[in-house]
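Hey, quick one: can you model this chain's 3D structure?
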Amino acid sequence: MSTESSLVITRIYPASAAKVFAAWTEANQLKQWFCPSDDMSVPVAEVDAREGGQFRIVMQNKDGETFSPGGTYEVVIPNEKLVFSWKWADSDLVTKITLDLEALGPNQTELTLTHEGFPESSVRDLHNEGWNGCLGRLDKYYN
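Sure thing. Here's the predicted structure for all 143 residues.
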């Protein structure tokens, strides 16, 4: 489901809700998967996963170019939900992300990512591409 100003992506991971939640809230784990392609790395991941806490991630491509999102956690319900703002370092646009986790079994979790607040479909579509890349790398992280 996508509208002009939002996108929703759902994936199922072969891991417990606690493991999926940790992948999003522990810096050492984010560094291993949080970039849209295998040609990139994450040299910096700073996470304070509590309501009011902040995060900053630096993704770097093979040419050394960096891309750095950050934001503030609004809702943190361990193993169930994360809501946080999202802002690229080189942009004034602030959007909102909601991650809902649903345990489908002891080692299977459905993740629904909702990203809202895009000013136009072209910006939404770029983020959709990036998120699908990141979520694909998260799947590889578990396999």
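One thing worth noting: The two ends are 27 Å apart (CA to CA).
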